[in-house]
Amino acid sequence: MIDLQEVGAFSHQDAGGNWQISFGIYLPGITFNKGYRLKVRIIHDFDQFVRGIEPKDFWMSWDNGSALDRWDVTVPLTPDPESRFGQPGRYLYRYELLRGDQDVTFWFTDPFGRESGIGTLSSVTVNAGLPAFTWTDADFSVPEVDRMVVYELNVREFNRDFDGVIDQLNYLGDLGVNVLELMPISNVKEDVEWGYTPLGYFSPDERLGGADGLKKLVDACHARGMAVILDSVYSHAHPEFPYNLVYDTSGEPNPMMGVFAGEFFDKPGTDYTKEFTRDYFFALNQYYLDEYHIDGFRYDYVPGMYDGFMGEGYANLVFRTYEFSKTIPRFKAGDRSKIIQCAEHLPGPQEILSRTYSNCCWQNGLLDRGRDMAKWNYVSADIAHQLDPEFLGYPTEYHNPTSGDTFPVAPFQYVESHDHARFINSFGQTALRDLLNEPYGNRALFYKMQPYIIALYTGKGIPMLWQGQEFGENWGVPGSGIGRNLFERPVHWEYFYDTAGKALVSLHRILGGLRRTNQALSSRGYFFYYFDQDHLAKHVIAYRRNSITGQPEESALVAINFSNQDQQIMLPFPVTGQWKEQMHGTHPVVTVTQNDQQQLITIPSNYGVIFGRQ
Fold first, then answer.
1. Strands 429-433 and 36-44
2. pLDDT digits (tens, 9 = 90+) for 126-164
3. Alpha carbon distances (Å) from 278 to 6, 85, 317, 325, 340
4. Spatial separation of the C-alpha atoms in residues 441 and 376, rounded to whole Å
5. Alpha carbon distance 522, 352 (integer Å)
6. 3-state SS assignment for residue 22
7. What is the pTM of this model?
8. What is the mean pLDDT of residues 315-344?
9. What does residue 56 show for φ and ψ, rounded to 5 degrees?
10. 5 vs 165: CA distance, rounded Å
11. Rounded to an integer, what distance in angstroms lies between the CA atom of residue 388 and that of residue 405?
12. Which domains does the chain have, with CATH numbers?
């Protein structure tokens, strides 16, 4: 069983007050009695590029009898007058594996390293006066599934680093956001990388702010009532990930990696039939929940780790993680946990929610339907059905008949994600192109996005925004190739100030506020007014959202016009009273004198109306 207290690198003082660093690493099957020798090479960060200063080498000992073949050494930081060695600061290190006097793996990082250097280096900090991070989030509670509004972002592209994200939290809160989904933040080798080829799983990338930066971000989010989930890449890794590189070069049976069962054939895959793999990623989840107060995980490419709902891979991992989370106060809701476990299993999202301990999932239904409608300029009932996941076979709760565990579940709903060109590009493109020759979307057509945004916030499921969507970001993304994830697309914050940006941000803020305050919009109730074919002929859909209590007088009536002309439709109002339009209040108040009374309403072009009872 993996014990995180005995692997990685830790600085500490001996009985005499002298600083030293303890190193430990598991290398199953790689033992001293087979002729292997292992050294750790260490250098002070300030000495890294100084001519004449070389790393110091220390041989490690194999722990004979350890179940996972642990190697370890404790290095005294004896001051060296010729270098910074022995002084406080950051120390960079790597491992070198030999057999006899011959190199087997000349350079590999620490698979349990808590900090990283640039490229393929791990690091550890020695600082006698550095206080431990002080958390202030004891009162934070993770939002319920039905109350979530998610914002997906790439930290570097969004605003430089973790501190840059903190600077924008009030802005995100105004959009109704209460969950941040961070694209992968673990250490990677390349300078520009989406993060989907991890190198150092336990190490938040130091270019984004490292360990302390991530803690500051999570604590700041919790202070504003926002949860934080990590995009977690557990089905494949970088070719230089230690448990791929070491066993590839040594020829020993690999305890963790195998052939990747997916579309990315250049990446080594993780093998969940192996106990070490299962324990490694469970220990990783525990670490981020405990050390960084992370609120859950968006599991990338689940088909690469899924072997059925009773399998040893994905299903086992989310179950163990759920059980562990029950002990953490911010997840408690009676006898269940509110930990967010979101699966990207696009081939079978319904089964994932029905049969595993996942409470949410990605699914491309609304994105695909919206883009097809935008491209071909039509409206069908399918768009309304996409706003009712239960109609499409999604469960509303997970129930385990054996354990009795029950919790609410729902899919994410989105029209944009990092995997696709921007939604605004579906309506038209400009002559301008980026360095990959991808065209930019025509932001002059921003108004055509508006009805889809209204649908996103007012339908069932969990709304998710992709960074910059709220002001009409218009990057393109190639369908394949390294240009997808090795090309930086910084958010165009200047768009926030122009006509298109102001209009879209204003709409997102209005809808975010309504989603937060109107219980009907975060309920499980939904009724599509399909019987009136006149609606579809006019490119209009209309539906009712019922409140959590199910009382009709607490409903929200939504009508959305996807056409370029104002449209008038008949809409049934469920109960008597005064009904007022909620977004702008400019529509005349509707007086209803009998239940289910039909009223003629006008819907602006490429827009919508939301009525609530006063």
1. unpaired
2. 986 778 899 999 999 999 999 999 999 999 999 999 999
3. 18, 38, 7, 17, 19
4. 16
5. 22
6. strand
7. 0.96
8. 97
9. -95, 135
10. 31
11. 25
12. 8-126 (2.60.40.10), 147-517 (3.20.20.80), 523-613 (2.60.40.1180)
